[in-house]
TrEMBL record:
SbcCD cleaves DNA hairpin structures. These structures can inhibit DNA replication and are intermediates in certain DNA recombination reactions. The complex acts as a 3'->5' double strand exonuclease that can open hairpins. It also has a 5' single-strand endonuclease activity. Belongs to the SbcD family. Coiled coil: none annotated. GO terms for biological process: DNA recombination; DNA replication. The gene is sbcD. This is Nuclease SbcCD subunit D. The keyword DNA damage does not apply. GO terms for molecular function: 3'-5' exonuclease activity; endonuclease activity. It comes from Streptomyces mimosae. The keyword Nuclease applies. Pfam families: Metallophos, SbcD_C. CDD domains: MPP_Mre11_N. Residues 1-217 form the Calcineurin-like phosphoesterase domain.
Length: 385
């Protein structure tokens, strides 16, 4: 059986307030094209279909169109909800959609109920484990504790119990949305540590011939049988070095796995630049990044005037600006809280100016402006009282 493993679409997500719907549409075109060209037997979507529980209408339309196109190909799709999805909203119409080959698994009670997909060697039981919030799913699953490892272990116990009732040789595929030990996170994933330690052992999935994971945005192989597909698009600058792809997985008659990566078309690239503003604006070697989403970290000792406006004149898709001013050798970097201790309002304001200017305090005119602003604030507060 040939499987196409994907996850973490995050439909409706923006990149620093820039819409990514066009790029997401391009990805879904590619997904359908790969499913057709590679003659896949099933598509596995391991959660975080949407970026939030109540997605924008445009994202819902894009999702709806993708399901129609996959159903029209006659390619079964098994899909679980992730921690960004609303399981109730994503699961609406699940029994009707199953008639069209779209198998939604969004309820913990369904963990042990597989979608049975036949091939020339017999049935493949595909089990969907949606994101399992420990405090909400402990009781339905009968887990021993409200912890991620405990609820996933209880869910896999249901999988193994059901598999034991199947004919000998039945191959098992599991979809799960979780943080599995050994995986490398990025800045894009929402924290799931509420409910105890987030990471679960990879051995939790023993018994499955292949486990299609979602949640982490980098494509990763934990074992030959346990893999993350990663997100199809970068959703933070921490993913600038990611190679975005899908897993094309062949499961033979004995359940042996052969997997290869299928690259996803690159949208607008990401670039992380660092240096003084004038250098970033004049360095000819940075020309290849002029069409990229840019995160610039400025190291100027004194914050330049209108830095973003000047930056976007060369890099029109600059979306993030950070400041890490250079400091003189040996210059101490004391905590801001310590500098506040015992200082007057005027001194605190002057210290703040020095803090953001790498030690260069305000001049006479700036001190006068600070004093005037603080005086006006005090007068206004007294009037309010």
């Amino acid at each position: 059986m040939r499987l196409l493993h994907t996850s973490d679409w995050h439909l409706g997500r923006t990149f620093h307030r820039v819409s990514l719907l066009a790029e997401q549409e391009t990805f879904l075109d590619h997904l359908v094209g790969v499913a057709r060209a590679e003659r896949v037997d099933a598509v596995l979507v391991a959660g975080d279909v949407y970026d939030r529980a109540v997605p924008p209408l445009a994202a819902v339309r894009l999702f709806d169109e993708a399901l129609h196109r996959l159903a029209a190909l006659g390619v079964p799709t098994v899909m679980i909800s992730g921690n960004h999805d609303s399981p109730h909203r994503l699961g609406v119409g699940g029994r009707l959609l199953a008639r069209a080959g779209i198998h939604l698994r969004t309820r913990p009670e369904e963990c042990g109920t597989p979608a049975l997909l036949p091939d020339a060697h017999g049935p493949v039981a595909v089990y969907g484990l949606p994101y399992l919030e420990p405090t909400l799913t402990r009781e339905p699953l009968g887990a021993e504790a409200p912890r991620h490892a405990a609820v996933l272990r209880a869910a896999m116990d249901r999988v193994r119990a059901d598999l034991a009732t199947r004919p000998p040789g039945t191959r098992a595929v599991v979809l799960a949305h979780a943080f599995v030990t050994g995986g490398q996170p990025s800045d894009s994933e929402r924290d799931i540590t509420v409910g105890g330690v987030a990471a679960v052992p990879v051995a939790t999935f023993d018994g499955a011939h292949y486990t299609a994971l979602g949640h982490l945005h980098g494509c990763q192989t934990l074992t030959e049988r346990v893999r993350y597909s990663g997100s199809p698009l970068p959703y933070s600058f921490s993913e600038a070095g990611h190679r975005k792809s899908l897993w094309l997985v062949d499961l033979d008659a004995a359940g042996a796995v052969h997997a290869e990566r299928v690259d996803v078309p690159l949208g607008r690239p990401l670039a992380r630049l660092r240096g003084r503003l004038d250098d970033l604006l004049s360095d000819a070697e940075l020309s290849p990044h002029e069409g990229a989403f840019v995160e610039a970290t400025l190291t100027d000792p004194i914050r330049p005037e209108e830095p973003m406006a000047r930056l976007t004149a060369r890099f029109p898709h600059a979306v993030s600006l950070l400041f890490e001013p250079e400091r003189a050798p040996g210059q101490a970097v004391d905590s801001y809280a310590r500098r506040l201790d015992g200082r007057t309002d005027e001194q605190v304001a002057e210290d703040f100016v020095a803090h953001v200017r790498a030690g260069q305090g305000p001049d006479g005119a700036e001190r006068a402006a600070l004093r005037a602003a603080l005086t006006a604030a005090r007068v206004g507060q007294e009037r309010d009282e």
